[in-house]
Specification:
There is one protein chain. This protein is α/β, with parallel strands linked by helices and about 110 residues long. It has one domain: HprK N-terminal domain-like (Udp-n-acetylmuramoylalanyl-d-glutamate--2,6- Diaminopimelate Ligase, Chain: A, domain 1), CATH 3.40.1390. Helices cover about 45% and strands about 20% of the residues. It is built from five helices and five strands. The chain has a five-stranded mixed beta sheet with strand order 1-5-4-3-2, sandwiched between helices. Strand 3, helix 3 and strand 4 form a beta-alpha-beta unit. It is globular, with a radius of gyration of 12 Å.
Length: about 110
């Protein structure tokens, strides 16, 4: 499954469109503690978080995440979007909670196998 598909399937709002929307998603990680995400997420993951500051882009770039989904209709800060454009990381926004969104992403990824 790629970013473009997950946007359509989950009705996400794309906020940083400079990333590669054909990039494949191999898994997912949900978390707000940056050190936890750095230690436990994997390359190709879609990261689900409530954080909106530019450090999320640094972590996603470091871990080579497929993209970032912000929950609860949280909007990324302006400097976050600027950094995402520089790093080529797609940022999306969902109206759902982390719990609901994580379940839906899991179900979508499980169906692709």
């Amino acid at each position: 499954m790629n970013i473009e598909t997950i946007i359509k399937e989950l009705n996400l709002k794309l906020r940083s469109a400079t990333g590669d929307l054909k990039k494949n998603i191999s898994g997912g990680y949900t978390g707000d503690l940056l050190s936890d995400v750095m230690a436990n997420s994997h390359e190709g993951d879609i990261w689900i978080t409530r954080q909106v500051h530019q450090n999320i882009v640094a972590v996603a770039s470091l871990k080579d995440h497929a993209g970032i989904i912000l929950i609860n209709s949280c909007e990324p800060a302006k400097d976050t979007l600027e950094r995402a454009a520089q790093e080529n990381i797609p940022i999306m926004v969902s109206d759902l909670s982390a719990f609901e969104l994580s379940g839906k992403v899991y179900d979508l990824l499980a169906k692709k196998d």
